[in-house]
User: What shape does this take?
Amino acid sequence: MGSCSVVTSEMKRNLLYSMNVSKFRQLIKKIDDVHGGICKDIEDSYLSPEACNIWFNKEIDRKIPFQEKHVLQQGSILGNLEKFGVLNKCNEKVECCESYLEEKDDSSVSAVVEFGAGRGYLTQMLADCYGINKVYLVERKSYKLKADRSLRQKENLVLERMRIDIEDLDLNAVESLHGVPYVAVGKHLCGPATDLSLRCCLSRQDGESPVPRGLAIATCCHHLCQWKSYINKEYILSLGISKDEFHIMTSFTSWAVDDDHGSNVPGVDDIDLLVANAKEEEEGEVRDDLSSVEEVVKKMKPMERAVLGFKCKQIIDAGRMKWVKKHGLDSKLVKYIPASISPENTLLVAG
Assistant: This one.
């Protein structure tokens, strides 16, 4: 994304503080109303699929860096794809997968495109545990200690690492992916990178296009989201939220994971509990004598700010989920990992 058109955090703050108090309160009410109507059914789906036991039990190449926190996250992302019917498990150790691949029907997944792949260990787990034999890693930065070496040692596995900005990637130009059913995954898709990845997979479809059978994207860094690249502007506008208000909402999302409340918020992933606690703190404290939004924000309790931040994150993700549905994949939002492991614990999964 060209830096000249990026709305910076400072610009977003200026938009917020230039509002009058009455407009600010109206926006908060709008966010509350919208959230109450659309975000009721984000269920917990913390999964440790049997197919990934070789990773959970550390029966993997000793050279692969093993961090339990990341393995739990990766395993749950893949488990949610399996639960959605996108991945078929390969129960024995990976040797079974070659014959299993030959028996697959045409609609089953044989390739993965990992967006924002970093070192590629989410895809490494997918190849180890589900017999995927075509791997495309999309990452603009260069990394050491990549999974590529280990992946290249697998027989019958084709690996392509594409060093490119997601915004510039055209999957139709990747000849080896033509007509191939694939799954798209992403665990480090900060802010607009999620929107760019969804657009890359689903916006242009014809007979020759690669075929997305499913996707799983762990959303994060909503404070970096941009109106320019957001995938479902139509939906946001239909809620009565303007472009400037959208940018203000993205700045609120940073409050959900602020350090100043992280340790004091019990069950930070339980929005209902947060709301109840925030209401208790708020009682008797609605004040109309504050003359600026900056003053109002300063008077807000950490709990209250956290609730608002989480609501905005979920509204932004709900728009993405609805866009994916509109483009032909069933989709839902789940909490794929407890907030104690990562407060960025929302997964958009589709198939």
